[in-house]
User: What shape does this take?
Amino acid sequence: MPQITVEELAALMKKAAGVTVSPEQLMEKPDTGFDVLGVDSLGLLGIVGELENTHGTPMPVDAERCKTPQQFLNLVNTTLMAGA
Assistant: This one.
């Protein structure tokens, strides 16, 4: 099972939350809060939903509570690797 990349997360943020962020921004400042980037809890829920649809794997409940893109990627990728 492939890991979620910053590029994929950036695309999901645009698709599910309507927030445009470059992968470079996410890599340079991985601990910038989703709230600072403009992603609210509903947007994050949308991102989680998109991932579940794409990968056919339930995401951890805590995914929608992540505060930063880095925290989100760590959690989601650990889950995907465990399910592989």
Observations:
- The mean pLDDT is 93.
- The two ends are 5 Å apart (CA to CA).
- The chain is about 60% helix and 0% strand.
